[in-house]
Amino acid sequence: MGFMKKLFGQGDSVPKEQAGKSFTEKDNRGTRHDTLDIASSYWMARVSSPKKDPFVMYTFDNDGDARKALLELPCIHVARDSQNLICTEVLIFGYYPTEQGKYEAVICGDDLTHEIWQKAKESFAKHGGQRKNDLEPEKRATPAIKVKKAKPAKVNFVREDHVQRHGATMIYRVHKAPDAASAKAFLEENPVTKQFYYIVVETPEGNYCRDIQGIYKE
Can you give the residue ranges of every domain in the chain? Predict the structure, then answer.
């Protein structure tokens, strides 16, 4: 139990589905929202975007309850090397303090399933959260037969773009892939460790990207 307490951090409970499993920062496939500035930038950009990803957002009195609420989701875990929360799906996730002294917790993204959306609402309420807003995802049909996952195809480099914005040079390394699975696999193997550097993989299913905050879908 001492090891598990250290793995999950002080005050973290160990969800049944996570017991015995070990995760690191490298396993993170999501984009972490852990400051108000990061979250505000996303929501301001979302206002003018025609695409509105489904989400769940609740406010909590303290960070401990927000963290526990997120940890009950099957895709949220604690990285043993950083003690940060990570997400094993391409989603926006996290919690952060607000100007009102509360904490907001969020799970969001085009890949947000109806099952996780529902679990988030239940878990956030269970841990004392107050609903701020949410957007329900469309219910997608589940295939009757599960097809064995194919090995991701090759991802090809296309170009590198340099864009000047707000006095900084943004570097975009653009690639192409035949499908989303290949794009995600490629991004998992190519972490970003510096600001203003973006890896973009264009696919027929949309563009998948990675920056210092994590992996996300445009």
Answer: 2-135, 156-217
